[in-house]
Structures are given as C-alpha cells and as structure tokens.
Design a protein that fits this description.
13% strand, globular, single chain, alpha/beta, 9 strands
Length: 280
C-alpha cells in the first residue's frame, strides 16, 4: 500500500486532491502545507474547514528564516568568492525562484523524514496538478527530485480531473476562499509576480491592502538590486521590465482616465475590493 503524503497549497486543485484521495480510499499518511507567511488571509480559514471536512490533520511547515527577511535582508553571496553581492533575494524571477525552491526543499525534507518511521517505501508526495495541465509535471522538474526513498504522484491526472472540475467540486462542498476565485484563476502567494502585469492590476483593484504591503516591500530594495523588477520583459525584443512602482504609476494613471469616462446605463464603474483580512 502506497505511503501517500498530500502536498497542500490550499488552492482548488490540492483541496480537491485531498478530498478525492480520501473518497477513493487511498492511504494518506500525512497532509502537509508550507506556510510562506505570504498567503492570502482566507487561506488559513479554508485549511481549518478542510481539516474539519476530511478529519485529516494538516501539518503546517514554516521557513526557518521568514520570507520577509529573505526578500530584503538575507546576504546573497557570489558563488566563487563568497563575497556579499547584495542583500535580499528580491522578487522571484526566471531561474531565481528562490521561494519556490525553499518551499520544495522543506516539503521534500518532511517526506524524506517520514521514510524513517516504518512506512512502506518510497514515500510518495501527491501533487495537485490537474489533468489539463499535465505539461507542468515535466516543466517543473519533479523527476529531478526523486530519490530511493521518495517519489511523486499526480492523482488528479490519474483521475482525469481538470482545473474547472476541481473548482466545481470544491464549490459544491461549500469552499469559497473568501471569493478569491471569483477574481483570480489560481491562488499563489499574494505578492507573487508570476501572474504578470494583469494579475498585479487585479491585486491593486481588489486587494488594496495587499497592494500597499507589496509597495512597502518594493521600497526595501535599492535601485540597483537585480531582483527589483516585478514584471520582467524580454529586452532583446524591446519589452521593458517594470518595477512595482512603475506599475503603480501606470495603474493610477489608467484608473484616473477610467474615472473620467461617462458610464453607460447599466455599466458597473466601481469594482468593490474583496474582504480578505489584513495583509500586514
């Protein structure tokens, strides 16, 4: 019998993953969530509700050094000389997705530690990748993390459950994440730049407290910091990279322009912010 560890991000796919595996009688030895400290506040209530529904305790892991500290204060050294190049990793970017790397390392370490507790080997991390995004399995390099004592499974792919089906399943059970999925296609850390400019604009519009927190974070990075760009373009193609303050200037100008338009009958002008709690 497989020794399955469900890796929970707390979003729709990993939530449905845990529920489906339990429903199908899979052997779940642990459910694990890595708390970056940058989660949307409703996520914590959601995890409590998920625990109550499944009866499965969710283990919460935390970074050894808070992500806020690593973002702006952690010394970053040159590989060869070990001299300090700058402080803080800055916004994750390209091959420097430091937050993802640390999260994966913590989850892998937890799974590896379970291999000493008498469970059938290998310990199998179950990841919430849906059937219509199977390409992520190779792209995200899971095969490189396999060891003699730890492997990976993608049960939603095995079950043929798509992203839309996972969200529908969760909604039918009453999970709503404080309305976040009415605005965002997927949930990640509130300050993640991977969603690009479009997601940044949604955060400014619907989560103003989160946007203010992000501006405070950006202000901690010096002007020559390599991680200062929140939205990085391809300079070879002439696409400019943007700092968060560049985007704030742009979004504020766009909002001012929109506010001067005369609304047509029935047109919704004001987009209400989501009530998601404090991001401080």
């Amino acid at each position: 019998m497989s020794s399955n560890v469900v890796s929970l991000s707390g979003g729709k796919d990993s939530t449905d993953l845990l529920i489906e595996m339990q429903k199908r009688g899979e052997n779940i030895i642990a459910a694990v969530f890595f708390d970056t400290g940058w989660e949307h506040p409703p996520l914590y209530g959601h995890l409590k509700n998920l625990e109550a529904y499944t009866g499965i305790p969710i283990v919460h892991l935390k970074p050894r050094i808070p992500f806020d500290v690593q973002f702006s204060q952690e010394p970053v050294r040159a590989k060869k000389t070990k001299e300090i190049k700058y402080y803080g990793y800055g916004w994750p970017r390209g091959k420097c997705r430091w937050c993802t790397r640390l999260k994966q390392s913590a989850l892998d370490s937890y799974a590896q530690a379970l291999s000493w507790q008498g469970y059938e080997l290998p310990i199998v991390q179950c990841i919430g990748i849906a059937a219509d995004e199977e390409h992520r399995i190779e792209a995200e390099g899971y095969s490189k993390r396999i060891s003699p004592y730890m492997n990976f499974r993608f049960p939603l792919v095995e079950y043929g459950i798509t992203e839309a089906q996972a969200l529908d399943d969760c909604k039918r059970l009453g999970f709503d994440w404080g309305g976040l999925y009415s605005v965002f296609h997927r949930l990640s850390c509130f300050c993640c730049p991977q969603g690009g400019i479009a997601q940044a604009q949604k955060i400014r519009t619907y989560l103003p407290d989160a946007w203010e927190k992000m501006l405070e974070m950006a202000a901690q990075l010096p002007g020559d910091h390599p991680g200062r760009f929140f939205a990085s373009g391809n300079r070879k193609k002439g696409i400019k990279s943007h700092t968060l303050h560049d985007l704030e200037t742009r979004f504020a100008a766009e909002a001012a322009f929109e506010s001067r338009k005369i609304p047509l009958p029935g047109m919704t002008v004001h987009k209400p912010a989501l009530e998601c709690g404090s991001y401080a």
